[in-house]
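Dear colleagues,

As part of the handover before I leave the project, I'm documenting each prediction I ran so the next person doesn't have to rerun anything. This entry is a single chain, and its sequence is reproduced below.
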Amino acid sequence: MGSNRRNKISSLKTLIVDCKKVHLPEVIWRIPQLRHLLFGRCYLPCPARSPIDGESIGLGNLLTLSKVSSSSCTEEVFERVPNLNKLGIFVENFEMRPFFLLNLVNLPRLETLKITSGIYSDVSVLMNLTFPPNIKKLTLEGCHIPWKNMTIIGSMPNLEALKLQLYACHGPEWEPREGEFCKLKFLLLENIDLAQWRAYDTNFTKLERLILRRCFKLEEIPPSIGEVSALEIIDLDDASPSAVTSAEQIQEEQKDYGHDIKVRVLDMFHLKRLKQEKAEAQIMAKVWSNEDTLQLEATAQFCGLLFDSIPLSKELISGVVPRLVEFLARNDYPQLQCKAAEAITSISNGSSDNINIMIDHGAVPVLVSLLSSPEDVLREQALHLLGNFAGDSTKSRDLILSYGVLMPLLAQFNDKTKLSIMRKGTRTLSNICEGKTWPQFKQVKSAILPLAHLIHIDDEEVLNSACWALLRLSYRKKDIIQAGVFPRLVELLLYPSLFVLIPAMCIVHNIISDVDDIQIQVIIDKGALPCLLNLLTQNYEYMVKKATCWIITQVIQRTKDNIQAVIEAGIFSPLVQLLQNAEFGLQDAAAWAIFNATMGGSNEQIKFLVDKGCIKPLCDLLVSRNTANIIKYCLGGLENILKVGEAEKKKGNTEDVNVFAQIIEDVGGLQKIENLQTHDYGNVRRSAIEILVTYWHQEDDNDEDSDDDNNDDNDDEDVDDYDDDDNAADDDEDDNDEDSDSKANSLS
């Protein structure tokens, strides 16, 4: 890079990119003059340390950052932008706990915050969390916060402007607690399903402007709002008639007190409803006529109403759908077919009732037949609809399979397939593989090889759907492995988007115990270990970290060279941290990994683990409240470490002292091992006694264990049973899979 170009970049102050997704390079942290970064959505790399002077790099002048993916909202990132004033966050469409909000405390100067959620469900993105105290302007979109949890927002001490948009909150009733929103001056409620809003005279005491947009269900504005002396304007856009009436009443009442409030009604909901009722009657008459032109006209008019702001009546939908299904079969009239497919696709999105109406009127066989249509637009609409049906319920998915959908569906995937059809086809295939109870394997077995091809398509949507489909089939480990997917799945561990990385990682977790050493080596050769390190150290949820520990354990188990590769990747330090500080299930997984490292590692490698501080957390977990499994892993790891200490002593390297035994004593481990001599499980008792006899030369006073403990062993958890997958699913490919859920790993 030329010096002039470097100088220009280093002096850059504003960067605006009109692009849906941007993965920023590491060099972004080396542009110190940057003040404003604006994107459709961006992913920031984790800040590195300068290779030149060893100092941390950052953007101390950055004031605006929007929108940044929630996966990039880490403590390390926010610490590098200490003066950030405005921040926009997009929450990924992945069920990740909102740890990113906890990191906002690292932004002491933040005053404007917008959070947009891409998770379109009833799962709340924000629950029981605290926002930085200096925030004055807050916008929430699609966050699905229950109104009862809005006290989090109402208690913000400096909040002056609040925008709640597109189901930012959900539920029919909102009643703020007394004294909340005491400094709020501006309030916007848009596309909220609120029906009853109550408020005290201690709420909204400084409100100047209230805007309601498309709040169709809201019955009235709280009368106490009108008593706020600072209130100047109430704007209503597409409000219900009763809400408009309440606003006008407030205006009239306050006028008597000399308080002039402007009420502006921008659109009248009830007038639009009357117009729509008239249009619906016209559609019903035309759609049931026998004239092709009127049928097409009615279908087009119906499509237009679908994109209006007022929901269609159930009577219209139930009256029109049977006719639309008939139109789908009109091969002699492709124009009507396409318009009917467009209409049915729109009303199937997110509505189980509408889907059931379509199924009841015979839509499924017609849609399956359309997969063989020469018209791309018809095949694409049919794929979308079948995907909606399959994803709606197990019953509708099984019905689709019974009509032989899989073969014409798989026929869509070839070298000439348009990307849009590829995306919809892969999504449909993924939904077919899903369900509360999974489909019989013989019904979907033929999808495995096409899916093995689809995970090589370099498109995020295709990869996401294909990986989720394979994940749902991964209880059939041998079938998945024989399809040759493992090397590609390892490559996808390096994929920049969580939408692909997470399901790929879950498949690897499910099948890795059955792959051979050659394929395990792929993880090392493809450079996936640093990715696993990132999954362990960043704020991913519990199951992601547990699965990562399991994958690392499988790598460790195979060879000493693999253990060395894990050492060089810097993975053992975070494993020891998990062992010491994580919640119980993660401690269990970390203990299993470290135990295996001590089982297969060289003396030097085991000494490396000791240097990383593994002895104390292993000892700390030797308490009776933990399960026998974790205690056995820890005892086994300590015994292997003691063996190395004994070898060093015999070599004369440690002045006739087993230094590792001394460390165990110093951290209180010896007392804990002695306490295990009375543990409920025989394997634990005997392991503890053997260690005490061998390394501390204590006498064995528990001879009664020899006979009675055989019964204990049947009840005890075996160390080798850490992988709880049921491999019986691979023994009989023609089984009925009556309980396929129990065979699948919980990560699916």
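The radius of gyration is 32 Å. The longest strand covers residues 36-43.

All the best with the project,
I.
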